[in-house]
Amino acid sequence: MDTIDLRSDTVSHPTPAMRAAMAKAAVGDDVYHDDPTVNQLEADAAALLGKEAAVFVSSGTQGNLCALLAHCGRGESILIGDTSHIFRYEQGGMAQLGGILPQTVSVQADGSMRLDELQAAINPDDEHMPKTRLVAIENTHNAAGGVPLSAEYTAQVADFARRNRLRFHIDGARIFNAAAAFGVEPKTLAEGADSLTFCLSKGLCAPVGSVLVGDAAFIQRARRARKVLGGSMRQAGVLAAAGLIALHEMRLRLRDDHANAQLLAEGLSEISGVTIMSQNTNFVTVSLHGQAGVNSQDLSQALREDHQILVAAYGGEESQFRLRTHYWIDRAAIDKVVKAVGALLS
Q1: How far is Cα 298 from Cα 320, in angstroms, rounded to an integer?
Q2: pTM over 0.90
Q3: How many whole angstroms from its chain centre is CA 139?
Q4: 10 Å Cβ neighbour count for 344?
């Protein structure tokens, strides 16, 4: 029996077309800007997001840190969501390596931050306080359950940034999921932002890599940041080749993952003891209550041992587990998961 891995879309692996493209990719030295495949990926990414330029980086975390280092100086401050990936899950790189101070603002259930709270969080022009330089949002928002942020909200944040002379960065690790959810072009969700980073892995299935986009002067500063972080690459075209397929083909099928997530949520919701906490884009969050008779950790172990189904379980009183659909999860896999959970909770 093949394993059904729903722990995250990060477990997705390259498609056969990607492997073939990687094998025959034209390469060169990327530090000299001589890798034609990397150059093509960067040019296509910039055009797709409506920006002047782009730089290929090893991960979303590296892309975000390059952006922050390019936007901010040591001792400056950024406005960031209190549950954002940059703040919670990137080891405080902005402070460790950039001397940049996070000023957190509460993230709402819909993944947004209130504009009045952002306004109140800006430090006054006072020599005792760090200068507020940047505001950053996350789309889709991971900790909020994969909820997408609309173009209207992004435009409001862009206007807020301009009025307050701040720069504006989007952690768009799953920006193409947001675009698919709203049925808009990716550049619509990037308009007004000074920079945006997105992942080529996760739902797009490339084995590694992210891209950071912005204007040409910003990208030049970001390249310098990438260098000092040890992120400059040589014959990276073998990776960029998979990224091109991710960019031009895989993003166009993300609605399938969203539809499968919805089917999964609908099927699980009919099982006694199961409550669907949220279903957004390719994310499903499930809670078990008393009628289930087991907690999420026990259910996760039973799914793994008895059915070769992997889910991400959370302990504590909530007894929740998380599921994320991706290219390698089809309708048949959804049916198997629903039946397995139903059998274990019956």
Answers
A1: 11
A2: yes
A3: 7
A4: 18
